[in-house]
Amino acid sequence: MSKHRARQRHRAAWSVTACTAAAMLAGTATAIADDTAQVPGSSCPGLYVLGIQGTSESSPGASLFDNTGMLGEMFRPMLANGVSIGHAYVPYPASFGGVIGTGAGTDSYGDSVQAARAQLNAMATQVIAQCPDTQLAAAGFSQGAEVLSSFAADVGSGNGPVPADRVAGIALLSNPSRAPGTDPFPGRPGQLTPNPPPGSDGELTTQVRINPVPPTGGIAASGSGYGDLSGRVAEFCIAGDLSCDAPANDAALRTAAGLAAQADLRDPIAAAQSLSNAWSDTVADTRTSVLVNDVSVVDGQVTYAPSRSVSQRLAEAADPRSAAPTPEETHAANDKADRVVSAILADPLGQIPRLAGQLVAAIGQNIADNSDLANPAVLGRYLDVPGNHTGYGTDGQTANAADWFSALSRDLAGGAGR
């Protein structure tokens, strides 16, 4: 699949309506359709929690109710200590292009995220429709946290499948799209305790303290805010977990991650072909972006004055969530390229030395944008990336999230068990 087509599919996934998602579900595996019909079940609890597992922890036919994977470490104590609380997991491919060690699924990471988002939309809509007095909460780990982050951003901006006042809390564990410089509650600097759930005084909820997070962002940081959900969306991130705590100056690494997210990685031949196609699309999109935004031709003088470095533009273009250039932008870039060539041919001795100086000046910014990749002090933080990424249970992060959601359920139940 070309990058342009993939991006169109991903953009559609972020804005998919509940009706569209339900229609997609009707055509998926019977196991999913049958299990989804049980959500939220025969009764409506005060709080219903949806979980989106990480890479390799789910599948299209996975059980909605078995507490496995990283989120099982959170859901078991949450259910034990909460009151009037129900739960279900969102079944989805949870794959990463079929690369060894990431489960049996062969969907690209981007397509897997798209499928999860459609399922999440449908299940959240179903809970809200069946249970008008039930509050919704959700937790996601790793790939699942990226899915949930986009859901929360849409809900908070009023563009999601459910209204913000029906969402009590969102827990993002190891979120790849975590924005840099954010506190545990994005959009609420310095806040360490969650906001009360809608319709409650939050006496127990506001006694919970969420752990601090590293100042850096995720490997696929998007910078999305959470609007009306701010204060009810919390980040959980272990320092040295590359998924949510990536180096600040690592544009090349982010480009590589974006390319891998689009690729078929089942075998060397498929990987080489799909990565080559993704790289070709990325370079073409970067060329368009540079010409449109960073190059000008005024009175026959060509000027390269980048507002963002080439490294940054490559990383943006490689991200499957980014918008492909419009036909108008592509036409404008091609037109400007023709004018650049004409200007240089008309005055090569005047144009080339000046442009060379501008390009040399820009090299420094490209080096700076990748400086952390050669910094031993920074790289030392990532000596145990697998251990950090899988340490949310032993580090107490899942227990912290479980305490929060248990408190939510008790506050919504009128303080039962206080």
Predict the CATH topology of the largest domain.
Rossmann fold
Low-confidence stretches: 1-37
Structural class: alpha/beta
Q: Give the count of helical stretches.
A: 14
- What string gives the helices and strands in order? HHHEHEHEHEEHHEEHHHHHH
**Largest sheet composition:** 5 strands, parallel
CATH superfamily of the largest domain: Alpha/Beta hydrolase fold, catalytic domain
Mean pLDDT: 86
CATH architecture of the largest domain: 3-Layer(aba) Sandwich
What is the C-level CATH assignment of the largest domain? Alpha Beta
Overall shape: elongated
Distance between the termini: 55 Å
Strand content: 5-15%
Tally of structural domains: 2
Strand arrangement in the largest pleated sheet: 2-1-3-4-5
Give helix % range: 40-55%
Cα gyration radius (Å) = 23 Å
Summarize the structure.
This protein has helices spanning 3-14, 18-26, 30-36, 69-81, 109-130, 143-156, 251-262, 268-294, 310-318, 327-346, 348-368, 376-379, 385-389, 397-412, and strands spanning 47-52, 85-89, 135-141, 167-173, 233-236, 295-298, 301-304. The chain is an alpha/beta fold.
Could you explain the architecture of this structure?
By secondary structure, the protein is α/β, with parallel strands linked by helices. The protein folds into 2 domains: 3-247 and 386-412, Alpha/Beta hydrolase fold, catalytic domain (Rossmann fold), CATH 3.40.50.1820; 268-374, no CATH class. It has helices at residues 3-14, 18-26, 30-36, 69-81, 109-130, 143-156, 251-262, 268-294, 310-318, 327-346, 348-368, 376-379, 385-389, 397-412; strands at 47-52, 85-89, 135-141, 167-173, 233-236, 295-298, 301-304. β6 (295-298) and β7 (301-304) form a beta hairpin. The chain is elongated. The relative contact order is 0.14.
